[in-house]
Amino acid sequence: MVKVVGVRFKKAGKIYYFDPHNLEVDKGDNVIVETARGMEYGHIVLGTKFVTDEEIVSPIKPVIRKATQKDDKVYEKNKEKEIKALEICKEKVEKHELDMKLIDVEYTFDNNKVIFYFTAEGRVDFRELVKDLASVFKIRIELRQIGVRDEAKMLGGLGPCGIPLCCSKWLGDFQPVSIKMAKEQNLSLNPTKISGICGRLLCCLKYEQDFYEAIGKKLPHEGQLVTVTDGKGIVFKVNALRETVTVKLEGDDAVLKEYHLEDIKVERSGCGKNCPKKTPEVAFKEPLSPEQKKELKSLEE
What we know:
The protein is an alpha+beta fold. It has eight helices and 13 strands.
């Protein structure tokens, strides 16, 4: 077991583990830590705890000290310089007529390097831009291309739900999200309804996926033969959230009744002619066109 504290360098950024040594630090403290790119100013979001060797990346770096008032002033001054640096870089990008969108800028705590974050459709030859910026700032320049998810995380905004974006408020790491999740959660495959302001699939599709996978193993499929208290029938509709199924009972009259999972016995020996092979959390009646499939696939990239 290794004694660590969890440190963030940006709001809703990834949490990194550091060795506190014998320092008395706790959640909420600002600290100076040693990183791969030098000394950095961070915020402790996880107090002292013990983790296994498998949970850390060796060698673990140390916490140098609690941030002093001088350190706080340096950090605030860097933030002020970043605003001006972003404006200067935007002017240089226009001057060189580069097809790129500047998103953010960051000074390292020791002022040895300034990092510019940008998005672009493809590769950008920014060698002349770097030379131009180096002549202005007189320090090392790094231009880092990021994706649209990272852009949304940095800029923030409101999601389709009407609240601030998860990625910009608390979500440290992006989790893989797929169209399969939207299907299993009975969501419309309309790209405007299942994508965020970044143009990619909603991160929140991941939140309930474990539940849908678990309940999908218990519930019968649409079209499957089942036995209920009123006799036998074919599953017409599945409601995963309520853990119920609507059954079309056998007989001359097309009677539809809803039953809870506990009141259903699945006939393993057979199922209706439309019984699907996979967990059918959704039964899409209209086949997707090649254009729709291509558009949905682009949301996962």
